[in-house]
Design brief:
The protein is α/β, with parallel strands linked by helices. It has four domains: 169 residues, Rossmann fold (3-Layer(aba) Sandwich); 104 residues, GMP Synthetase, Chain A, domain 3 (2-Layer Sandwich), CATH 3.30.300.20; 74 residues, Nucleic acid-binding proteins (OB fold (Dihydrolipoamide Acetyltransferase, E2P)), CATH 2.40.50; 156 residues, Recombination protein O, C-terminal domain (de novo design (two linked rop proteins), Up-down Bundle). Helix content is 36%, strand content 23%. Strands 1, 2, 3, 4, 5, 6 and 7 form a seven-stranded mixed β-sheet that branches. It has a five-stranded mixed β-barrel with strand order 11-12-13-15-14. A three-stranded mixed β-sheet has the order 8-9-10. Helix 6 packs antiparallel against helix 8, helix 10 packs parallel to helix 12 and helix 12 packs parallel to helix 14.
């Protein structure tokens, strides 16, 4: 049985969380230093073996914040604990009972996620009686699922801890392809490697006042060219970073380049600059600009969506991107290997399928698991039905970025597809959806009163004016009362009650023309699929 899951590593600053992650992965993905608050961002390290995949979430140290950056770091760490499969709470073996550790445990109260207490740096102590007394206090304060002692630096007992972590995980999919070691891009790791050298080579307030970002990253034929900027808060700090005749900047760059070349497996040209942004750690603009945003950690782990696939495109040789319309709106999901014959998602990606997907990522999401809720493949057998629904999919896709009630439209879309599936008299249901969307977009026609005088009798409909007129104010172009009554009937029809609407073919042609004109005149929209449909049905 293949097991997988997410494990959050939390604790005070400088307890060895990043060292533990590097030890587990047997390579460097997280920077480490003797200075507290080295880790600022939440990010993942991905452990793989033959029968499991464990995504370890390395978090910033939880501490009493003195800056807005510090508040972000502690908040980001605690936000992970409700959305993972296991929490690893790490403490130092050489510490007595710390009040702040007890406060962290109070914040864990009420979560359903199991928590392991990990005593790190066992290699640094000899007084085990003192340690056991401290552990008993912690065990009285919180119902830990297990208590373990390790040395992350030396690797002592880490393999045994991994076995116990696996026991807590459930059967699950492989969330990330083989070979991936982190959810963060290489550019993020490069910035961190540079910042690590600053932490190593500078002292006092300088390390905590530093931020690094990349100006450019160019992969040339024989060398990777990287230009990076180091941000500090004061001119005096800039002087320290640059050093006499640029000596410190060269030292930082030379040392960081070695780690970057090991990461990228290639030759690197690294050029560093330094600039001052006063008090950037307390200024919201800079925190957001440098990536320290208030985010819901769940969005970085797993998200579940249900919806209709409106469109799909090929991605590279064997993968696809689907565009899924959900109650939240349109999302795009990358599905690795979906075009391969043996892919479990081969049939999931068909347009018009109603599916459930589990994803990670923010903008372009990546599929981790999925299933077909309703398979509408039988509709594909009728070219006319399928083309009509492609026209509807195109329409919904086009207006999916507009502000309206996506949940209501999705519900109506599913009902219309069901009607198309079970009846041959389906065209009026298509028209109903097109009319309902006009209402949701806020450009719905006015049916009940003459736009000029307010009369409610002998009305005709004008597309250009978006409403009705009486006999005394008839416009130059209009649809007669019979068309108007049919439009009103479709607009107010309860789709939940009836499966059949009888509308004569000639009237359907007029309704089709009216709706096309209305969308083109008021929304500047005309469907590309409509041309194909006209070739099939003749109007």
């Amino acid at each position: 049985m293949f097991k997988s899951g997410f494990v959050s590593i939390i604790g005070e600053p400088n307890v060895g969380k990043s060292t533990f992650l590097n030890q587990v992965l047997k390579q460097k993905v997280a920077i480490v230093s003797s200075k507290p608050q080295t880790t600022r961002n939440v990010f993942s390290g991905i452990y793989n073996d033959d029968d499991s995949q464990i995504i370890f979430i390395d978090t910033p140290g939880i501490h009493q914040a003195k800056t807005k950056l510090g508040e972000y770091m502690s908040s980001a760490a605690l936000s992970t604990v409700k959305s993972v499969d296991l929490v690893v709470f790490m403490i130092n073996a050489y510490d007595d009972v710390l009040e702040y550790n007890l406060k962290i445990m109070e914040k864990l109260n009420g979560i359903k996620t199991p928590v392991f207490l990990i005593i790190n740096k066992l290699d640094t102590i000899t007084d085990y009686d003192r340690l056991n007394n401290a552990i008993e206090v912690y065990k009285q304060a919180y119902p830990f699922k297990g208590v373990f002692g390790i040395s992350a630096l030396k690797g002592d007992n880490v393999d045994l801890l991994l076995l116990d972590i696996k026991k807590e995980l459930q059967e699950g999919p492989k969330y990330y392809p083989d070979g991936e070691i982190s959810d963060r891009p290489e550019t993020f790791l490069i910035q961190e490697f540079i910042r690590e050298k600053i932490l190593e080579f500078t002292h006092e307030e300088v390390p905590h006042s530093v931020m690094v970002y990349l100006e450019s990253y160019k992969n040339k034929r024989n060398i990777i060219e990287i230009l990076a900027t180091i941000v500090v808060e004061r001119k005096s700090q800039k002087g320290i970073i640059i050093g006499k005749n640029g000596s410190m900047l060269k030292r930082i760059g030379s040392s960081a380049r070695n780690d970057i070349e090991a990461l990228l497996s290639g030759k690197v040209y690294l050029e560093l600059f330094c600039k001052v942004e006063e008090n950037w750690r307390n200024r919201e603009y800079y925190l957001k600009s440098y990536g320290y945003k208030d985010i819901e950690w769940r969005s970085m782990i797993l998200q579940e969506y249900q919806g209709i696939i409106l469109k799909k495109i090929s991605y590279k040789e064997s993968s696809e991107i689907i565009y899924l319309y959900t109650k939240e709106g349109l999302i795009s999901v990358l599905i690795h290997g979906s075009k391969k014959i043996k892919s479990p998602f081969l049939n999931l990606t068909k347009v018009l399928n109603y599916v459930k997907v589990i994803t990670t990522g923010k903008d372009l999401k990546t599929l981790k698991d999925g299933e077909i809720i309703i398979n509408y493949s039988s509709i594909h057998e009728s070219l006319e039905k399928y083309t009509y629904l492609l026209m509807v999919s195109e329409l919904v896709y086009y207006f999916s970025t507009h502000e309206h009630d996506h949940e209501k439209l999705l519900s109506f879309l599913v009902k219309v597809i069901e009607k198309v599936k079970i009846t041959d008299e389906y065209i009026p249901f298509i028209n109903m959806l097109e009319l309902k969307l006009l209402y949701l977009l806020g450009v719905n026609p006015i049916f009940n009163k003459c736009l000029t005088c307010g009369s409610e009798v002998n009305l005709v409909f004008s597309v250009q004016d978006g409403g009705v007129f009486c006999n005394s104010h008839i416009p130059s172009n209009y649809y007669d009362n019979n068309v108007l009554n049919t439009i009103k009937m479709l607009y107010y029809f309860d789709i939940n009650i009836n499966n059949k609407i009888e509308v004569e073919t000639e009237m359907l042609k007029k309704i089709r023309r009216l709706i096309d004109e209305y969308y083109e005149y008021h929304l500047n929209y005309f469907s590309k699929t409509r041309k194909m449909l006209k070739g099939l049905i003749g109007y």
